[in-house]
Amino acid sequence: xxxxxxxxxxxxxxxxxxxxxxxxxxxxxxxxxxxxxxxxxxxxxxxxxxxxxxxxxxxxxxxxxxxxxxxxxxxxxxxxxxxxxxxxxxxxxxxxxxxxxxxxxxxxxxxxxxxxxxxxxxxxxxxxxxxxxxxx
Length: 136
Prior knowledge:
The protein is an all-beta fold and 136 residues long. 0% of the residues lie in helices and 45% in strands. It has no helices and ten strands.
């Protein structure tokens, strides 16, 4: 996956590549006037946005969701993974980020879908650099 910033005339400002051989699909992106960019999506395996690896499901099979906040230069502020913790269900379980938005105070809002019991409140994270994230 890559995220690119272009100016108002379409000129390249910066771009960042994230991920490796593991599957990674962005589903939504939002930006605010301060230059913060938030990307949400889904991944299979583990993903690192430069702040340490995310593992959403803790070993359950299927896709997990992610959300990452980037600053105006494309560096990660914080990242979170979320996924189904039901490892023993024997089912392919999917947790997908839907739409993401940034409100006027800078808080991030995310919609998501889960096919099982999801860890929808990831709790405190060492990869979180700002207290302005609100989880469902």
